[in-house]
Design a protein that fits this description.
heterodimer; A: four-stranded antiparallel β-sheet; two-stranded antiparallel ribbon; 12 helices; 8 strands; 6% strand; B: 17 helices; disordered N terminus
Chain lengths: 391, 409
């Protein structure tokens, strides 16, 4: 075979090594060209209205007020501070939303799997109703039709320790005080000690074959040590504040605004319907043979659930839960519709004031991407721990 | 807890049971009432649960019924037209009626030809028409038109049941439905009097937005899904970057980008109105989610299919479009319907950027001081509408899921 023959045999457009490279170069060139056109257009557009791209404006005075700022903020602070406040607000509503939605979702999921026909029917009606209506509508209903018609703060409704009015709710809360830092250290030590007790009892149980109640002993140790800590320091880890009605206002406690409550409750309900279905799907995906095997071994149904069904279901549940949590964080952006100022709401105000549309949108996208990347990272670690260990 | 008490369920039936809701395990020859009583009050735990849940249910039902009966609902029916079609010009109303007639006939024909879930769709549409026709405050004209729609569903059913040859024409007509109707609503680009998008509103705008997003996301979504599985790293990573970027961003941000940045991207000023910009945003947003669904389908195709296509001498493009994609799309129909439901619900977000869709119109009406404090009536009406259509889609999806999995067994 001469070199010319070889060349003829694989012309360049059929060469399996060259063609993909050329294709990719063409593809990247097209994408690059599109991006270049977009950027050029944007630049000319910006120049026409006399602006340029840059993040210097972030240091300018914001000048607008933010209700419910979780970190210190005043109108004289720069834009960057306002955006930080927005990020913290997003995290605040998402954090509580995730916890509450998980609790309610798991409960509803279990209710739907119940043997009891009525209970299971009620659970599925709950799921159907709140899954098939828009989240924004639910937020509107809660804000405008449930919380705003409540009585004024002067005639606030009292439900046990909490007060409800058209300004929102005031709930008992635990504040940090000077001793809290010491208590944090103390708690670390106590938890370490309880874990040691658990391990030691577990080892005894395995070696001696007697029931030594490792969990109960560890819990007991925890309580005892905490009690000892309380006696020594003379104060609890946190200061409890309970709201009290003073006639014109409610003092003490933690006050939650109407928009915050509407968003939190709506996010909780909406997401809980998805979590309920995920939990149910996960548990029902465990092969029936596993349930039968636990029966054959004489497990009680709670024990079977805890030791056999749940550990297998959790593997199916976790990845889907992750995406629901991320959805909840993203959905919290609807809060701006009722005036809870989280990152998108604050960003929107900044856009309106400074006219820096492009920059603010870039910042917001970066913020959301970092949220989702961090969540996926944590969940991946968690997921790895629960993965099947193949033999 | 696991439902494991009794599992004998009589003879297996051949009919598809389409329900995701709990069902009662019933012994052969056992009456429903007896099975229910045994289930609800069989043991102590169940009795307690039943009583508690029963009290709760009665309380909620009582609240709902008294809410419905105590309110006059005039805020809804005074604005019914605004809620349904926005400010669409009255003299051009026949275009919308044509769209409804067309849809009704097609639904009837589909039901008659294929049976299955078409029944549920036909009955739901029929019931909604009937409800609107029967309430006393609709005009005679509207009632007659709605009655005609019901008639078309029924006629289509009868015709479809008798003439089996209609299957291909019906599919073709379904394919033409969207371009024809949307063209008519817009005025065929000048052929008829154009009706600008600023006059669309209410449920009409919601449906148009959702349909454009659902249909428009397919080309880009499928390309992204294929690109993500490409063996060329450049293509693969560009697709992954796009999909993950869009999926990591909240929809409201994408809508902002559509409203505020598209004019900038296109060089400062454009003739695109805000409805079109919202549509573009929805299409690009939905494509990323569709791509992930389709990717799931592509991954489920066994390697044997690729090898068989190769053995038959098909090239890569033919293998993808004639062998792999049809199977992959069929496998993910339920997931796609799930996405469509989400899109329909998510069109409500345009209310935030100031468009008068279904929810946006309700919000505007509730801002009218004359109807202060009547929010709940309006929102309950809106919620009911969303619920009916989302639930219907979910039902059809579950039906398809069962019938497809039945075919593969």
């Amino acid at each position: 075979m001469t070199p010319t023959e070889k060349n003829r045999k694989t012309p360049i457009w059929r060469n399996r090594k060259v063609v993909p490279v050329i294709l990719q170069i063409i593809f990247l060139a097209i994408i690059g060209l599109l991006l270049w056109i977009l950027i050029q257009n944007t630049m000319t557009g910006l120049r026409r209205i006399g602006m340029s791209f840059g993040f210097d404006f972030l240091n300018a005075r914001a000048g607008f007020n933010i209700n419910e700022a979780m970190i210190e903020y005043s109108t004289s602070d720069p834009y960057v501070r306002a955006i930080m406040v927005g990020i913290v607000s997003t995290l605040r509503v998402s954090f509580f939303g995730i916890i509450l939605a998980t609790i309610i979702g798991v409960l509803v999921g279990i209710a739907k799997m119940s043997d009891n026909w009525l209970l299971s029917k009620v659970a599925s009606v709950y799921i159907d109703i709140f899954r098939n209506t828009p989240l924004l509508l639910q937020i509107f209903v809660l804000n405008f039709a449930v919380f705003l018609p409540l009585p004024r703060i002067q005639e606030a409704l009292r439900l046990g320790p909490l007060y409800l009015s058209n300004r929102g709710a005031v709930i008992p809360w635990a504040d940090l005080h000077e001793g809290s830092a010491i208590w944090a250290l103390l708690l670390l030590v106590v938890i370490g000690a309880s874990v040691l007790v658990y391990k030691w009892q577990m080892k005894r149980e395995v070696e001696e074959g007697k029931n030594t109640y490792p969990f109960l002993s560890a819990f007991g140790a925890f309580i005892l040590l905490c009690g000892a800590g309380y006696l020594v320091t003379g104060e609890g880890p946190l200061q409890l504040t309970i709201p009290a009605h003073t006639g014109a206002d409610v003092t003490g406690g933690l006050s939650l605004s109407t928009p915050f409550l509407s968003v939190l409750v709506a996010l909780t309900i909406f997401t809980s319907t998805y979590i309920a279905e995920i939990v149910r799907g996960g548990v029902q995906a465990v092969p029936k043979g596993q349930v039968e095997a636990t029966k054959a071994l004489g497990f009680r149904s709670a024990t079977a659930m805890r030791l056999v069904i749940f550990p297998q279901a959790i593997r199916i549940i976790i990845p889907q839960m992750t995406s629901q949590y991320l959805n909840l964080i993203k959905n919290s952006s609807l809060a701006m519709a009722v005036g809870y100022q989280e990152i998108v709401g604050v960003g929107n105000t900044v856009i309106n004031q400074s006219g820096r549309t492009l920059e603010v949108i870039v910042i917001m996208i970066a913020v959301y991407l970092s949220f989702s990347l961090t969540t996926s990272l944590f969940m991946n670690i968690f997921n790895k721990k629960f993965q099947l260990v193949e033999r | 807890m696991i439902n494991d008490n009794l599992h004998y369920k009589g003879e297996p039936t051949n009919s598809l049971e389409v329900t995701d809701s709990p069902h009662l395990d019933r012994q052969k020859n056992e009456s429903f009432g007896h099975a229910l009583r045994k289930n609800l009050f069989g043991n102590k735990k169940n009795t307690v649960l039943t009583v508690l849940t029963g009290l709760f249910t009665v309380f909620v039902l009582y609240q709902v019924v008294s809410f419905v009966l105590e309110n006059s609902w005039d805020v809804v029916y005074i604005h019914l037209r605004l809620l349904m079609i926005g400010q669409y010009p009255l003299e051009e109303l026949w275009r919308l009626w044509f769209g409804l007639y067309y849809a009704s006939l097609m639904i009837g024909l589909t039901w008659g030809l294929w049976r299955g879930a078409g029944k549920a769709v036909a009955f739901t549409f029929g019931a909604v028409y009937l409800a609107f026709a029967a309430v006393p405050w609709t005009t005679l004209n509207t009632s007659l038109n709605l009655a005609a729609c019901i008639g078309l569903i029924a006629g289509g059913y009868v015709l479809g049941g008798k003439v089996d040859r209609l299957k291909i024409p019906v599919l073709v007509l379904w394919g033409l439905y969207f371009p024809l109707t949307i063209g008519l609503i817009m005025g065929f680009g000048g052929l008829l009097d154009p009706v600008l998008s600023r006059y669309w509103g209410g449920w009409l705008l919601t449906v148009i937005l959702a349909s454009v997003a659902i249909i428009g996301c397919f080309p880009l979504g499928i390309l992204l899904a294929l690109g993500r599985r490409s063996s060329l790293p450049a293509v693969k990573y560009v697709c992954i970057a796009y999909i993950e970027l869009v999926r990591g961003t909240p929809l409201i941000m994408v809508l902002f980008i559509g409203q505020l940045l598209i004019p900038l991207f296109l060089g400062g000023q454009t003739g695109l109105d805000n409805v079109t910009r919202a549509m573009i945003a929805y299409v690009f947003f939905a494509a990323a989610y569709l791509a992930e669904d389709v990717r799931g389908g592509l991954q489920s195709i066994p390697t044997g299919q690729f090898e068989a296509a190769q053995a038959l001498g098909l090239n890569k493009v033919k293998t993808t479009f004639f062998i792999i994609l049809p199977q992959a799309l069929k496998a993910v129909i339920p997931a796609m319907v799930g996405l469509f439901i989400t899109i329909l619900k998510d069109t409500s977000l345009v209310a935030i950027i100031g468009l008068a869709d279904f929810l946006g119109t309700a919000r505007r009406i509730s801002n009218n001081p004359e109807y202060l404090g009547r929010y709940l009536e309006l929102y309950v009406f809106v919620a009911a509408f969303y619920f009916i259509f989302c639930y219907l889609m979910a039902y059809v999806s579950r039906y398809l899921e069962r019938s497809l999995s039945k075919g593969s067994r």
